[in-house]
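Assemble and predict.
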Amino acid sequence: MGPVTDAAPAAKLTKWIAASPQRVFEAWTTADQLTRWLSPGPDIPLAEAVADAHVGGTLRLVYLTPDAPHPEVVLGRYLEVSPFRRLVFTWAWQAPHSTFPVEHLGRDSTVTVDLLPIDGGTQVTLVHEGLPPGPMSARHAQGWTGALEQLSTFYVVA
Amino acid sequence: MDLTFAALADPTRRAILSRLAEDAGASDGGVRVTELAAPFTRNRLGSMSLPAVSKHLRVLERAGLLRQEKDGRVRRCYLEPEPLRQAYGWVVFYRQFWTQKLDALADFLENESIAPSPQPRSSAEPPAKTKPPAPRKRGARD
């Protein structure tokens, strides 16, 4: 990756999950398991998932939103698939029906998921980078307080 | 936008902004420069000079993240949140998005009893819902 973007926006988070890396990996790479947890909530189901989890394979997620006539579609490509350890895939919201701002449509960002066996469970570290700078929408831009709280973690990535 | 990120790429400046953000939540009276500088001029983080702190403040000011006002002989600083909102909309969105997803993933894996299947790529196979819960004893020998 380019060295230019030291301060480029990235979202990084970690979570410990009481399940083995095998199970976590499976949940990430199996389409029908993805639909069980990768949806925003009962009101916005992940209606359809394709997870062809090998390098170069396709990830496709179709979200139905209640107040929109068209689904939101995420299209990605697997860049790295290391069973039970690491998963890297691209992530782009698709035009033409998306309600997302145009600067993010069709533009690849990258999601890296690392799995580490810790304390009988799995520590999941997720980094979503290559995000375009700029507001998402009034609805989603949570204001600056939240952003500030997170600043310290953004830069861990750099 | 570049100015914003350049300004934020420094831990001292981020600390200054965090301090201002705290204050903005509590009152809108701004924070005196000497008060802002105190953590850097007199603690374990070393002894930064007041002019050095002022330089950081100017960088933040140029990036539109901070406003300074003279109140008699006292200079006060105010946070200008708009560039942050502009810059971090997507980060905030995705942090929230993935936080919810990872919580949901944990719920899914911890509450459902899905036996791990031998090959993780079997996307056609429905999850084995009816299997009894797998014993939680794992990694006992580590």
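The radius of gyration of chain A is 16 Å.
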